[in-house]
Structure formats: C-alpha cells, structure tokens
Amino acid sequence: MALYVQKFGGTSVGTVERIKKVAERVGRFRKEGHDVVVVVSAMSGETNRLIALAKDIHDEPSPREMDMLVSTGEQVTIALLAMALEQQGTPATSYTGAQVGIITDKAYTKARIKKIDTEAINQDLKAGRVVVVAGFQGVDEEGNITTLGRGGSDTTGVALAAALKADECQIYTDVDGVYTADPRICSKASRLDTITVEEMLELASLGSKVLQIRSVEFAGKYKVPLRVLSSFEDNEGPGTLIVADDEENPSMEEPLISGIAHNTNEAKLTVLGAPDIPGVAARILGPIGDANIEVDMIVQNVSPDGKSTDFSFTVGRGDYKKAKALLEDIVTEMGAGKVVGDTAIAKVSLVGVGMRSHAGVASLMFKTLASAGINIRMVSTSEIKISVVIDENFTELAVRTLHTAFGLDKAE
Amino acid sequence: MALYVQKFGGTSVGTVERIKKVAERVGRFRKEGHDVVVVVSAMSGETNRLIALAKDIHDEPSPREMDMLVSTGEQVTIALLAMALEQQGTPATSYTGAQVGIITDKAYTKARIKKIDTEAINQDLKAGRVVVVAGFQGVDEEGNITTLGRGGSDTTGVALAAALKADECQIYTDVDGVYTADPRICSKASRLDTITVEEMLELASLGSKVLQIRSVEFAGKYKVPLRVLSSFEDNEGPGTLIVADDEENPSMEEPLISGIAHNTNEAKLTVLGAPDIPGVAARILGPIGDANIEVDMIVQNVSPDGKSTDFSFTVGRGDYKKAKALLEDIVTEMGAGKVVGDTAIAKVSLVGVGMRSHAGVASLMFKTLASAGINIRMVSTSEIKISVVIDENFTELAVRTLHTAFGLDKAE
Fold first, then answer.
1. Binding of ATP: at which residues (chains A, B) (predicted)?
2. Interface contact B87-A50, CB threshold 8 A
3. Mean pLDDT throughout B382-397?
4. Is A317 touching B (CB cutoff 8 A)?
5. What is the ipTM, given to two decimal places?
6. Is A358 in a helix, a strand, or coil?
C-alpha cells in the first residue's frame, strides 16, 4: 500500500465527463488500498476566460487581484472532482491552497512555496478519504492568495509529494511519457522507461513541454520519484519515471544519449566585426536583457584578424524584430560591426548523462549531420548536452538521422 | 465624512461594463471623502452556471463541496471590481469571506454569521483604500468555506455595517426604493422615503422582493440604518431608508398604512367539517410540515353546530397538489371532513405601524372591497398587517382601490 500524489492538468479535467473519468481512475487506486492525494488545475479554458475578463477592465491588473481572480479556477475543479469521487462511492474532501496550508512568499503570479502544513491531509488520509488539493495556488503569511505561475500545478504536486513523503508523484498529461524524440516528426521515437532529473531539465528547457521545469528541479532537490503518464483511458502504460541523479551509483549501462530535442521557435542574430575589447558582450546583450528579451544560445568567435569578433545568439522568434532594432542601435553607437539575422533556423540537441563519461558524441553528431548534407550554423555544449543550429528545413531529417545514428530507434 | 457599506447584487455586476459603472459610483463616494466598504454578489448567471456543473456530476452534492464551488462566484467579482476601482484611480483591496474573517456556524449552504473580524478592513480604510468584500460567504471555525444561502449578500452587507458601526448600509438593486404598492399594477404607487423595519419585514414576507428578510431582521436587531437604492446610473434618487422601530419616540404623524402588498403565488386548501376536538389542527398540519411544505395563512372557524370545524390554510402553488393529496389521506384517516381547494386566489395585505394605534383599518378595508364588488374569502391579521384572500381576477382592482381609499396615491 503506497501513498500517491496524482496531478491532473486542465485538459484532463476540461469537462464534466473528463472529471468523472479522473474520479474513476483515482477511485481504482483507492480501492486497491493506496492513499491518494489529487492535485488539479483549472478546467482548460477557464484561466484564459478569467484573464480576458481582467484585461477588459485593466491593462495591467494588480498582481494580487489577478491571483485572487484566477485562483477560483482550481477551486471550481476541486469541488467538482470531490463531488464526482463521492458520486462513485469514494469519500473525498477538497482543499484550496490556503486551506491546506501551502505557504508561499509574496511574489504574486509567480510565488514560491515556502512550506506546507500536512496535518489536515494526513488526518483525512487516515480516515480513508481521498484529498483533493487545488494546484497552482497558495497563500502568503498574511493570508493573501498567491499563485505559482502558469503550469504551477506540477510544482504543487511535487511539493506535496515531498512534504507527505509520498512514494510517487504521478503527473497525468496528454502524452504517455517522455520520448527519445518528438514522435510527430520521428516515427521511430520510443518511450523512455526512466530518465534522470538532469536530463529531463535539459529536455524541458529545450522545448519538450511535458513537464514544468520548476517541478522537475523540485523533484530532484527533494528526491521525489516523479512519473509522467497519460490521463487517457485507453492508454494506461507505465509512463516515464524521472529519477534523481545518483552520482554515487551511476548505472553501468547508462546510454550515451537519452533523447533528442528540437526547437523551431528561435531566431539567430549575429553582430559581425564587433571590436574585440573587454565588455563588448555586455554592451551587446545589456540592452537586450533590459528589454526583457530572453537569450538562449550565445556563441562568440574571434575573427582571423584578431581585432574584431563575431558575436551570435538566439532569441524567441516573437522577439526577433525588436532585438534586431536594438542591435542596430548598438552597432551604430559602437561605430563598428554589422547586424545579420535569420529566422528560419532550428535548434537540435542531444541530451544524455552518458555523455559525461564518453568522448566522441560531438564528432559522431557532426559526422552524421555532414553525411546527411546538413550544414551546422552554430554549436553550443553543456556537460550533458550538445545543441546545434541548422536550417529549419532540415529539422526532421536531422532528428531522424541522429536518432538512428545514436541507436535510439525502437525495435520493430 | 461618513462610513458607508454599499452592496451591489448580481445584476449590478453582471457584465464588465456594469462592474465599471459600479466602480465609478463607488469612486465618487470615495472622492467626496467618505470611507467605503463594498459587498458584491456573483455576476448574474454565474451561480446558476456552477450549480448546473455540480448537478451534472452529483444529484445531491455534498453541501461542503457546493459551498466550495459556488463561493468562487463572488471571488471573481471582488477581484474584477478591485481592478476596476484601481483602473479609475481609486486604491482598493479585495477580500474573500474567509480572509476578512466572517466566521459562521457549520451549516453549509445556509450558514449564519457568528462574528466578523474588522481589523484588516479598518487598516485598509485608514490607509485610504476601498475595501471590496465577497458577499454571501464566510468560513467556519475550522476554515471550511460556508455560504449564507441565496440572497445572503444583503446579510453580509448589513452584518459588516453593524460590525464596522457604519453610518449607513446601502443596498443597490434594480428598483429605486420601496413602494406603497407594486408600480406595475398600481400606477399611482409612490416611493416611500422611510419605512420601519417591522413594516419592511411584513412587506418582504408578503411578496415584495426588494430585500432579503434576514438582512432586514439583522438591521433591526443591530440598529443599522439600511437604504435601498437603484444601481442604475440614470436614477440616482435617495431610495428608501429602512429605520429601526423606535417604540419610545413614535412619530406623531405616522401614516395609517405604509404599503399594500399582493401575492398571487399561493393556493388555498380547506378541510370542511373536521371534528372540533383538541389536536385537530396539529393532526392536519403535521404531515404538511413533515413534507417540507410551507404554510402561510391559517384560519379556523367553528361551524354552526359546534361539533365540527372548517380549517383553511394557504400554501405555495407549487405545493398545492402534494398538500391536497396529503390532506385527503388525513381526512380518510380521521373518518370525517372533506377537502376543497382553490388555486386562483390572491392575497392582498395592508401594512403599517400606524395600525397599532388606530382602529377602523379593517372596517375601511372591508367596506372598500365590498363597494368594488370584491368578495373576501379569508382574513388574517397581525398587529401591523391585515391580509385578505380574494379571487385572483380582482387583484389589481383591489390593490388600486385600497391604494386610493387609504390616501396613498401620489400627488399629481
């Protein structure tokens, strides 16, 4: 008999019918004798509906009032799910973030959890009840309602699992696990049984939208076993278990590469011939950061004459025009260099903790891409990741070719 | 500079546009230097939407979960109204019933307020902020969300006004005050400047749906000056002030009659020839009460032979068939009597504290109805009220004729 924290997102509770399906699934776990705490998001569409109401009233609503407003979304779901559980004969009690004692800091709309009071939950579990908790929300020390930011329900689930010392935190979603590559463009992609927190973090930040990054960090920090599963009836597989990095006992059989991520939502900007003097990177990136534009890959090369440098980075495509205009001002100010850019790029990344102990990943990657006739435009590496920027047209070819080359193709 | 508690119902905050109008009105009071606490209901339609969701899931949802669910309606409104106030330059803070410390008993869906913590409100008022409080809801001693039952936002308003010792509790509604009769059927009806709590209670229970009865009782008990006003922009009259009964200093000029109420939603049932023995009324009404059927007027007459009695009462028309069937069982059991009934009736009532000190109201009423050719089928009186039951066809004629006879017609 185990204690599970099960989190269901907005799509999984998007209609009354789906809420009933969730209740059935939770009820089955309960009937098997397990203790279950359920964390739910707002019904899909509800948060956007509330935000639209607010925007009709105020261009920049007070963050406190936004949290007051949108936190009602999860409150509706917990009440409905508790009703659905009771309708099916499973005793259940719902709690808002405030009621269950999820104490956060005061950073409205992006609050961080400070502590969780588990007394009420443990009492209910002991009495054989399923506990239904509103995800995404908490309360500061003064009783003001806060929210953890979009996707924060995953974090609520992991934080509750940590506080309750749950055996597993199960995140139900619309995919049945983490894949070696995006199955929509790579038909040979296969579901991973396990993946490490570190790898998952690299994959999440590279564009795999399965889990919210913060919840994965949290799971790593508090060693919470985290499982991603499908919430759809007809697909009750084991999902993917995300395990803490165990540096003392690394698996002998660790695969070189766990997965391949791709991202076609970035654009590349380069300042050609910038003066190669200290502080030039800061001078170029300062105004970009000030404009709240997020920069992803950064590459700098010294040009052959040793006096000037080529400085490249990538930004989200939505920020491309704004970033380019800012760069042109900077170049004019510096009196040197030239700005060029490209929006038709793709970033393809190999991720795997196995990379740490094996050389040759980069050379195999480059060789594979070269034999497929794909030109590499930018390279960036971390300890367990290699990312390359290529022409967008070649995205699928690159992912498929690398998938085969690194032995990830599923057995037929 | 006064302290006002202003309550706006669901229609007054039914759309984003109307919420902005409410913010403008509240802002004007604030700019005049008054302190304002605003109590709001859920946007019209929202509570019904939530109840429909619950009914799709469970025939009889747990009352605790129902309160968890429907209390989100007011929470949405308070956040939106606080945003609208800030948009117009009026600093504002919203509070749920739980946050502001409206402590109730545990009677989910029909809780009663036990106490209110005014500390947070007073601090905000001192800081020059408008305080926006969710009506209709509170929290029990253990932190469970409760609601006060439909229309409970009026009660929240009055209770807050009492706790804060406000100068006035203003209930904004879709009528501009309390009238001497229903203006839709009596064109000469006029708005009352003042009415006593006692009169208002009689009028409310007689079918004038301006205010919730409980809030009026509360206002009387705690001597809260209560004003009913129109929430519509183009009708900013003074409304009607509901004043506490002042038995020590009655006004010398108290009018005989304050208003005429009518109700065409009742049906009459009579047991003819019931045995005139102790306990017969209880025997007749017991099963009616057990079936949760509310009984209004009750009249009993001894029949000429002194051995049997005719027992009549009125019930809501929706309960007529059920009540009649129950009565027929009772009559069969008693082995005596006969059940007759009529659904085409109207109850017309005169209300006025002036009645207490003046004789002759009943005789003038009966004389007036007789000269209009209206037959009286039942009579019932209280200290400040006379009600008659007549044929439904004569409702408007009766109200208009009595309105003129008792000098209530407005000056031309």
1. 7-10, 173-174, 179, 184, 209-210
2. no
3. 92
4. no
5. 0.81
6. coil
